[in-house]
Hints:
- By secondary structure, chain A is mainly alpha-helical.
- Chain A is about 75% helix and about 0% strand.
- Chain B is α+β, with helices and mostly antiparallel strands.
- Chain B has 2 domains: about 5-230, Rossmann fold (3-Layer(aba) Sandwich), CATH 3.40.50.300; about 240-345, CATH 2.40.50.140.
- Chain B has 8 helices and 19 strands.
- In chain B, the strands form 4 sheets. Chain B has a 6-stranded mixed β-sheet, sandwiched between helices. Chain B has a 5-stranded antiparallel β-sheet with strand order 13-12-11-14-19. In chain B, strands 2-1-4-5 form a 4-stranded antiparallel β-sheet, with helices on one face.
- In chain B, strand 16 and strand 17 form a beta hairpin.
- The longest helix of chain B is centred in the middle third of the chain and has 18 residues, at about 165-185.
- The two termini of chain B are about 40 Å apart.
- The interface between A and B is medium-sized, with 16 and 23 residues.
Amino acid sequence: MFRDKAPWWAYVVIFLTSLGAVAPLAWLFLLSLDPNQGIASGSGVYSLKNYASVLFESMMAQYFINTTVVALFTVFCTLTCATLGAYAASRYRFRGRETIMIVLLLASMTPVIAVLVPLYAMAAKLQLLNTYSILVIVFTAWQLPGTLWLIRSFMNSIPPELEEAALVDGCSRAGAFFRIVLPQLAPGLVAAGLIVFVYVWNEFIIAVSLAAQQDMRLVSVGLYFYLSDFGVEWGKIAAGAIISVIPPAMLFLFLQRQLIHGLSAGAVK
Amino acid sequence: MATVEIRAVKKAYGATPVIHGVDVGIADGEFVVLVGPSGCGKSTLLRMIAGLEDISGGEIRIGDRVINNVPPKDRDIAMVFQNYALYPHMTVAENMGFSLKLHKAPKAEIDARVRAAAEILSLSHLLDRFPRQLSGGQRQRVAMGRAIVRDPQVFLFDEPLSNLDAKLRVQMRAEIKELHQRLRTTTVYVTHDQIEAMTMADKIVVMQDGIVEQIGAPLDLYDKPANQFVAGFIGSPSMNFIEGRVRLDGTPRFETADGIALPVSPPAGVADGQPAVYGVRPEHMQIDPDGVAATVLVTEPTGAEILVVTKIGEHEVNCLFRERLSFSPGETIRIAPQRHLVHLFDAQTGKAL
Lengths: 269, 353
Ligand SMILES: Nc1ncnc2c1ncn2[C@@H]1O[C@H](COP(=O)(O)OP(=O)(O)OP(=O)(O)O)[C@@H](O)[C@H]1O
Ligand SMILES: [Mg+2]
């Protein structure tokens, strides 16, 4: 690995990159503390008024609950289906296995806009508009191909001999999966789960199309409607945005170790 | 402990046959080595005994039970894999006790048996470590430990030593053999290394391209190879082969196309002028003033013995001498095979004559 001290310009590059990433957030944060309206009013007055107003005077709290519920169910459904699919795609040989995997990958490259109208029509027909279910179903379907690919590559890095040893030691096929494969897969599942969670948290187009009714909105949709519902109240929008960043950021912090472990698994042996 | 009977076993992957009907009988407590070049189907056969591959034809019995359709967990076998396949998230003790735990043995018994096995393999101080904290040789021992705590009917080994360095391999070879002498568990051991096969086996099964070429005790295979393949495979450095004809007019001899005559005592039934392959092991060549002229190409002294690569006419012949001889390349020496240790093979079929 690189044992030498990094050259000075490496620090400059890293500093500038970080600045680029952090500056808008910092600006957003300052804005959220400004109780007066208007961007860059520079009044020098700071308060948490905007936060209080977002949390207690709007439906933001409800949107948080909505998003959390939808995200958790989506993560659960996606990981379950993807893990089972990945197991089959990794451990069993069958006709057209690679073709199916490629088709899945291609399917996941379809732009959302292209399927929005049919999705809306189907959801309407099934009377599922403005429900948690439709969001979970569509998000799961949308995330499944990528997650399946990701988990399959984790699965491929687990030697099949581990399972075979477990079979000989006295496990059934399912037993070998749960006792041996799943523990090896855990970091990969954490990584995949986080990716799906953050996707749901950031998703806007599908959410606004299928669940725009006031009490069913997700956080991203709620923030958007702030603009129209309250006029341009930058301070409150900024406060809402900052709050909405917190849950995924916390998750990343807590799961950081597993995440890095998972994303780099099999890269170095 | 149990016998293992392999009867007319076949294996095909889809339409591709890889094992074409193999019969092997393994006695109770016997140490049998399956040996053969890469891709000959040794691992496949072993995995069929383990239940990790379906059996396409024939049957396999362990004891007097046909196990073709018995799942691996109910076969009462233990297997050591080439890459050890230790469970990374379990400690050494947990790895070794895993199968007892699955079979619902009481905790005290698991503990006692793991300890006893660890004692035998000198692993006692490593019981709390994880596999990633062990050296290759230690992992290998844990894999063996996992097999012996079970006290199974049959041990299966698939090239368990091939990831170790040469010195450790020799040491583990002796340890496995000693372990077998102590436990007397029926063992099937796969390797492509004929020295491992010769040193460890009670009985060797030589395979090639999915068929059994010969089954026998190590020294039987060395002394009486059934065909040219076995003759070339068993023994190191391997046997010299020279093509030519058997002549019975006058002194029986073997004549090559370029007119070199080699001594032979042809078995009954060999006709004058019959084309054949002459086989002689390097260690059965001697310095002999009445022998044929050979040009020295290369000498490789190892201290205990010296390997001399020579050329007799157009034929390259390896000779292994125990004497301290020194030759220089280009020198002409006179050598002769020990007549009674020469093998003859049919030129077409390769069968021993
Ligand atoms: N899943 C499979 N599908 C098709 N052919 C296979 C499969 N597994 C093995 N084979 C073929 O079966 C033959 C025997 O393989 P096997 O692994 O038993 O060889 P081996 O004798 O153990 O060789 P090695 O010493 O290299 O381990 C090989 O020709 C191999 O290509
Ligand atoms: Mg093999």
